[in-house]
């Protein structure tokens, strides 16, 4: 009877022994995607790639503001006002369409770059885990002890590549 009451205690000790030899590591993937040199290069590449289209959007925006200033003046004829209002509406529609297209294209390109980077990050994490002889590497945790954080080692490995 006493043995039956003590089985939970034996179970706790058995589980503790199993996990005593387990080495766990933590990696902050958000930080890696922000700070890794390949991620920074990819962000700069995307910025450069989309700069001409953003400049075109700024040009259309400036044109719209100029047209709005003309409309705000009271000294234009009613027929000119209607023509300018139609121009402004069309310009606004073009601006919104351009903005939508740029956002869609940027998101698609960002996802492409991220997919390639994710493969390199996973390989670096695996390399660090094998080098440190880690049994488990987690990416998200409510709490983590800084001792088990291997993010800096992964970042260093990504710089070397």
UniProtKB/TrEMBL annotation:
SUPFAM superfamilies: OmpH-like. GO terms for biological process: protein stabilization. Coiled coil: none annotated. GO terms for molecular function: unfolded protein binding. One of its GO terms (cellular component) is cytosol. InterPro entries: Chaperone_Skp, Skp_dom_sf. PANTHER family: CHAPERONE PROTEIN SKP (PTHR35089:SF1). Belongs to the skp family. This is OmpH family outer membrane protein. The lineage of its organism: Bacteria, Pseudomonadati, Pseudomonadota, Betaproteobacteria, Neisseriales.
